[in-house]
Amino acid sequence: MKKRTLSLALLAAAFAFAALACQQVPVANTNANANTNANAQTAVNYTYPADLKPALDSINTDDLMRHTKALSSDEYEGRGPGTHGEELSVAYISDQFKRIGLKPGNPDGTYVQKVPLVGFTAQNPTASFSVGGKKIDLKFPDDWVGVSRRLEPEAKVDNSDVVFVGYGVEAPEYGWDDFKGTDVKGKTILMLVNDPPVPDPADPTKLDDKMFKGRAMTYYGRWTYKYEQAMRHGAAAAIIIHETGPAGYPYEVVSGSWGRENFDIRTPENARRAAVEGWITLERAKEVLSAAGQDFDALKKQAVSKDFKPVALNAKASFDIKNQLREIQSQNVVAKIEGSDPKLKDEYVVYTAHWDHLGKDPSKQGDQIFNGADDNASGVAQLLEIAEAYTKLPTPPKRSILFVSVTAEEKGLLGSKYYAANPLYPLTKTLADINMDEANQWGRTRDLTVVGLGNSSLDDVAQQAANMQGGRVLQPDPEPENGGFYRSDHFEFAKQGVPALNPEAGIDYLGKPAGWGKQKRDDYTEHDYHKPSDEIKPGWDLSGAVEDAQLYMITGYLVAQGDKYPEWKEGTEFKAKREQSLKGATGP
User: Fold this and answer.
1) Contact of 479 with 464, CB cutoff 8 Å
2) Would you state the pLDDT for residue 54?
3) What pLDDT is stored for residue 10 in this prediction?
C-alpha cells in the first residue's frame, strides 16, 4: 500500500498552521443573549487561530435554537421518512444550504441523493407459544413486537421448535460459539441482548476485559448482528429477550419504533432473512421459559460461559405478520464546500447528522408527535451552523467538505448505509466522517465524550481542537455497555473503512456538582428518548452545544488541511477494511 502523505511543502504548511494555533485570541461569544452560567464565560481561555475566529464566532445559540425549533415543531410531524414531515425537512435543510452559499452536493447538480426504501407495517400481527399443552398468546405491542424484512405481503411461522441460543454469538477471536453446530434451520431462536458479560477469572465481581471488550459492547451485542446470525443459520424466527439494563433503553423505546411502520433498502438479502424478527418482554419470556421447565436466571448464567450449548425447549412458536408495503423515494440532503487546493479538492471530509425521527402515531392518546428536538433536530442545527462557519473562512480548506443530512437513521441507519454503499464521492478519497447525533442541551462542559475513543487517529485531531478550547478533555463513553458506537450514522462509514468520529456531550458541567451530567443523561434516556416528550424544554442551555460544534468544525478543518489521512488504530475491526480499500490507490 502506498503511504498517503503530502509533499514536504504541504507538511511545512501544516507546521505553520500549528504555530499559528498558538496565537491567543479572545473568547468567542457564543450568543449575545446567552443564558450561560455566570462563571462559564470566564472558565475557558481559547487559543484559536486568528483565521478561524470569524468562522467559529458565527456559531451561536440563537441560530442553533432557531434551526432546532423549526425542525422539531409540530408542523414537521416528527420528520418521519415518506411523510409530509420529510418534505418539509428536506426543503428546510436544502434552503439553508442554499442561503449559506454551499454548492449542491450531488454531482447531478441537486442538493439531494434519492434513497429508495420499502415501508412495511405489520397488520394485526399474532404470536403464541405452545408449551406442555398450554397456549401462551402474546399481545402486540405490549408483550412483543416483530417485523418481517422479507418485504412480502405475509410472513407465517407455524409450530416451529424453539431453541434458546444464549447470546447468539459466534466470535472465533474469543473462542466463542453459542451454536456449537446445532441445526436451527426452520426453528425459532430466543436470544439475550448485548454481549456475554464474562466474569474475570481473577475477580468474578468484574468483567473480563479480554472478552468482548469487558464492559463495552462490541458489534456482537447489537440486535442487528443477532438477526444477521439468524439469517446465516436459516432460522424461521429470531426473538430477542429485552432487558432494559443490557439494552440501554426501556422496552417502550423498542415498541414505539418497531410497533409502527418500518423501512428497509430492498436487496437480495431480504429474501434470506428470518421470516420474523422481533423482541419479547422479559416478563413474558420468563413465563414461556418457566412453562417449558426452564429458569431464565439459570439459563442466563449458563450463557456467559464458553461451554454453553443451545437449549432445545419443550415448546412450539407460531407467528403471523401481514405486511402493508409501500415503495418510497426518501432523500439524503447533501451540500459541499469545494477545496481550495486543485490537487486535493477531490478529497473529502464528511459531516453527517440524521434529519429523521419517529414521525406521528395517531393511535396514541394525548401527544402523538415524536418531535425529536434533541434527537436529532439539534444535531442537524449543529451541521448547518458548522456549514455556515466554513463559508466565513478567508480561504476554504485545501480539501472539500461535504455535509450530509441523512434519512432513516431511526429505521436502521438506512440513509447512511445507502450513501456508504452508493457514495457520491469515492470512499477511498473520503478522509473522515464526523457525526452529530443529539447536541448538548445543558450548558458548557470541561470534557467531550467520544464514543469509541481510541479507535482512530481522529481522536488525536479532536484533542488538538480541544486543546484550543482551554484544554478540554476527551472522555470515553460513560456507558460503553450500550453499544453507542454501533447505533448512529458514522458506523456505516466505519464498516466501509472510513475513519469515523462520534462525539457526544461531555458530563463534567461547569458550575455543577460531580455526577450532575450523568444524571441528566439518564433522565433524558428514561423520560424523553424516543418519546413525544423529546421537545425543547424551558431550561435548555445551548452554550455547550456551540462549543462542541466549534470543536467539530476545528477537527474537520485540521483533517482537511492535514498532511496524512486519518487511520484506524491497531486492533480495531475496521483497520483491515480501510487498508484493503486503499491498497494500490495513489496518494495526493
Assistant:
1) no
2) 95
3) 36
Residue extents of the structural domains in the chain: 8-101+338-447+529-582, 118-325
Cis ω for the linkage preceding 314 (within 30 of 0): no
Q: What would the 3-class secondary structure string for 97-128 be?
A: HHHHCCEECCCCCCCEEEEEEEEEEEEEEEEE
Q: Which three cell numbers stand for residue 173?
A: 477471536
Measured CA to CA, the distance from residue 50 to residue 110 in angstroms comes to 34
Across 460-488, average pLDDT: 93
Residue 130 has pLDDT above 50, yes or no: yes
CA–CA gap between residue 324 and residue 347 (Å, rounded): 42
Neighbours of 51 (CB within 10 A): 15
Under DSSP, is residue 584 helix (H, G, I), strand (E, B) or coil? coil
Cell numbers found for residue 150: 422479507
Mean pLDDT of the chain: 91
Cell readout for 110 is: 441537486
User: Of 369, 346, 373, which Cα lies nearest the Cα of 587?
Assistant: 346
Is residue 339 predicted with pLDDT exceeding 70? Answer: yes
The β-bridge relationship of strands 112-131 and 262-264 is antiparallel
- Which of 581, 580, 554 minimizes the C-alpha distance to 57? 554
Q: Decide if 336 contacts 133 (C-beta within 8 A).
A: no
Q: Quickly state the pLDDT bin for 585 (edges 50, 70, 90).
A: low
Kind of pairing between the strands at 103-104 and 447-451: unpaired
Helices (H), 306-454: 378-391, 414-421
Rounded CA gap, 243 and 193, in Å?
7
Per-residue confidence (pLDDT) for residue 9, from 0 to 100: 37
- Amino acid 584: pLDDT: 59
Q: Which residues pair with 190 in a beta bridge?
A: 164, 239
Topology given in CATH for the domain delimited by 118-325: Glucose Oxidase; domain 1 (3.50.30)
DSSP labels for 323-361? EEEEEEEEEEEEEEE--S-TTTTTSEEEEEEE-----B-
Q: What is the mean pLDDT of residues 365-370?
A: 96
| Contact of 356 with 375, CB cutoff 8 Å | no
Tally the C-alpha atoms within 13 A of residue 158's C-alpha that lie toward its C-beta.
1
Q: Compute the radius of gyration of the chain from its Cα atoms.
A: 24
Which residue type, as a one-letter code, is found at position 178?
Answer: D
For residue 292, the one-letter residue type is: A
Whether 14 has a pLDDT exceeding 80, the answer reads no
Q: Which fold has domain 8-101+338-447+529-582?
A: Aminopeptidase (3.40.630)
- Res. 269: pLDDT tops 70: yes
**Residue of 536, 392, 556 whose CA lies nearest to 458:** 556
**pTM for this prediction:** 0.87
The residues with which 118 forms a beta bridge, in sequence order, are: 264, 327
- For the cut 70, the answer to whether the pLDDT of residue 426 exceeds it is yes
436 near 500, Cβ under 8 Å?
no
Cell of 131: 408449551
Straight-line distance from the first to the last Cα atom of the chain, in angstroms, rounded to the nearest whole number:
14
Asked whether this chain's domains 8-101+338-447+529-582 and 118-325 adopt the same fold, the reply is no
25-72 residue pLDDT tens: 333 334 333 333 333 333 457 888 899 999 999 999 999 999 999 999
Q: How far apart are CA 522 and CA 333, in angstroms?
A: 31
For 149-173, the pLDDT digits (tens) are: 999 999 999 999 999 999 999 999 9
Mean pLDDT of 247-274: 93
